[in-house]
Amino acid sequence: MSRYTPTPPQNFGGLPEEFSSYENARAVIFPVPLERTATYERGTRNGPGAILEASRHMELYDEELQTEPAREIGIHTWPAIDTMDGTFEEVLHELFTAQLQLLEDKKFPVALGGEHSLTPPLVSATAKKYKDLCVLHIGAHAEMRNEYQGNPGSHVCTMRRVTEICPAVQVGVRSLSEEESKILPKLKTKVYWAKDIVRAPVKAWIAKVLEDLSPHVYLTVNVDGFDSAIISATGAPEPGGLDWYEVTSLIRAVADHKKIVAMDVAELSPRPRDHASDFLVAKLIYKTLGFVFCQS
Predict the structure, then answer these.
(1) 220/168 Cα distance (integer angstroms)
(2) Is the CB of residue 183 less than 8 Å from the CB of residue 145?
């Protein structure tokens, strides 16, 4: 009789029940296929599904940490939230409520976007538990407009809304409007411009970022923070961004010196046959969980 390799389970990492049940998991993957305010190329609603599919093909051993994080952490995957039913405001409130539930259950929430407008309600919920919360934003765009096309909840206003909740540190920014350039000095954010760090010694600028962060950190990664030569599968790719080792070195240092309490990854817009972008995002999430839970 022929033997076939069984298909991995339909969850993050393709994990068996032993390492993926809600009761035993410390981290919960939270798919949010939100796409309500996209302004250029669409497709972010397909991001969570592409990330989950790519994750099922990862090697689960981490060569940096010399362990298999999934076994130590336990990673549960929630069903995707319905982001098409109801008003935009109702969807954001549902995200806020879901995040509160995860935090009350002492889980580490990992939201998979979807567009970046998912972040403010998640940060708002997290700030209710951690009063000294700071947001670390890795991304290309400042996202500091007060409103766009009459919508203050647009994805291009994400970090403006975040700074109304708690302070932020933004890394890799290289695109903004004149309006944003004038308001930035007045807002609760510190920006590390891509032009200033991509050729600078990594340890030097990471040390400065750490000084600007508070003890509890919410991590939000807009995939356009990576150079467009590395990830082009996003709605508004920008040249001149960060590479894999810059991003992972930053996240590892933050996890080592601060406490990352929740995270999201947004704005992946999958392309046919571009599995590398999907895989990079899945691996970045898995690496981050390893840094948060498995560093000695």
Answers:
(1) 10
(2) no
